[in-house]
UniProtKB/TrEMBL annotation:
Residue ranges of domain Solute-binding protein family 3/N-terminal in the record: 46-183
Signal peptide from the UniProt entry: 1-22
Pfam families: SBP_bac_3
Domain of life: Bacteria
Keywords for this protein: Signal
Annotated InterPro entries: Solute-binding_3/MltF_N (IPR001638)
Protein name: Solute-binding protein family 3/N-terminal domain-containing protein
Lineage, top ranks: Bacteria, Bacillati, Bacillota, Clostridia, Lachnospirales
Length: 189
């Protein structure tokens, strides 16, 4: 009788330990609130896909051959807030989300919010509205409210929203960046 009771206790403890281990691997709600460690980043580098032939949104500075513009500077401030090094990966406008699916980078900075994008990817709240700067963009934006997009199922986008994007909006940093490149504020409050 004692042996049988002992085996039951061992089985219950083993089941509890296995359940706890499985849940730990899935990420905790605290992580997904953006309060915990971002586990999707490799080697402390935030890889951001940006179209670097997009006028003031993103371009390569001729004198330095480095990325410049609203999107690269915004990405740099986000990486800084997260305590990460930034790597910008140039891509075409058409491939921004496709290359995200191919794991070429962790997120994209300046993508318009659509129902389809938000259904298939994780997204921050829209942080900028480019409808008032169509002349600076050289084209009409079909979806003028921009968000940061990443793959579904990771805690990266909530962490970017809570630990970087919201503080950068509140302290006026993104407003200053938008005024620098567009001479007006495009940041949503």
């Amino acid at each position: 009788m004692k042996k049988n009771k002992f085996h039951r206790i061992i089985c219950v403890l083993a089941a509890a330990i296995l359940t706890a281990a499985a849940l730990t691997g899935c990420g905790t709600p605290k992580d997904c609130e953006g309060e915990g460690k971002i586990t999707t980043i490799e080697k402390g580098v935030l890889k951001v896909g940006i179209h670097l032939d997009d006028g003031s949104m993103g371009y390569v500075e001729e004198s330095t051959a480095k990325p410049a513009g609203f999107a690269p500077e915004t990405a740099a401030k986000i990486a800084e807030k997260l305590g990460l090094t930034l790597e910008i990966i140039d891509t075409t406008e058409e491939n921004l989300l496709n290359s995200l699916d191919a794991d070429l980078y962790d997120c994209v900075i300046t993508v318009g919010t659509t129902d389809w994008n938000q259904e298939h990817y994780s997204a921050t709240k829209p942080y900028a509205d480019v409808s008032g700067i169509q002349d600076k963009l050289g084209k009409k934006a079909a979806y003028p409210k921009l968000a940061i997009f990443g793959k579904k199922g990771t805690c990266l986008i909530p962490a970017i929203q809570n630990q970087a994007l919201t503080p950068l909006i509140k302290d006026g940093t993104l407003t200053e960046i938008s005024k620098k490149y567009f001479e007006k504020d495009i940041i949503l409050k």
